[in-house]
């Protein structure tokens, strides 16, 4: 949600505006403490408790996405307001919004087969982005399937034929 949209949906306080601006500039998830630290580096002070209270409230209103990593909540302003997932770099936190064709149907089918009723789901993929992988000399796979309906992921072997990564 943009700063302009924020102003039209509810009363805008200075802390909410500052938090929204910080998250709009980041391409990764951030903790409330990180947001507070960024604001302090810019010479702006808001209390840590104020930051926590505001990001939690704004996330509960759907203004930010939230994920939990090692028991800590991380927040991100997403450009895409419909249901989506993220791939997050485990090292630098760079985050990309992704859609996985067929995933929703696969989840519904799996739940039905197991006699569960789907209420909600969250999927966050943690990996290394190309930049961080390069620092560790880890090469990304050459070719991967694009959705659960494609079956197992595959990569070409030395002969150029596909082999399963099972």
Question: Which keywords apply here?
Answer:
disordered C terminus, three-stranded mixed β-sheet, globular, Dna Ligase, domain 1, alpha+beta, 166 residues, two-stranded antiparallel ribbon, 6 helices, 36% helix, Arc Repressor Mutant, subunit A
Outline the secondary-structure elements.
Layout: H1 3-9, H2 14-25, H3 32-41, H4 48-60, E1 65-69, E2 72-76, E3 85-89, E4 95-98, H5 103-113, E5 124-127, H6 130-135, E6 154-156, E7 162-164
Parallel strand pairs: 3-5
Antiparallel strand pairs: 1-2, 3-4, 6-7
Describe the model.
There is one protein chain. This protein has 166 residues and is of the alpha+beta class. It folds into two domains: 3-76, Winged helix-like DNA-binding domain superfamily/Winged helix DNA-binding domain (Arc Repressor Mutant, subunit A, Orthogonal Bundle); 85-164, 2-Layer Sandwich (Dna Ligase, domain 1). Helices cover 36% and strands 17% of the residues. The chain has six helices and seven strands, in the order H-H-H-H-E-E-E-E-H-E-H-E-E. The protein has a three-stranded mixed sheet, with no helix packed on it. It has a two-stranded antiparallel sheet with strand order 1-2. It has a two-stranded antiparallel sheet with strand order 6-7. A hairpin with a 5-residue loop joins strand 3 and strand 4 (95-98). Helix 2 crosses helix 3 and helix 3 (32-41) crosses helix 4. The longest helix has 13 residues, at 48-60. The protein is globular. Residues 4-8 and 151-166 have low confidence and may be disordered.
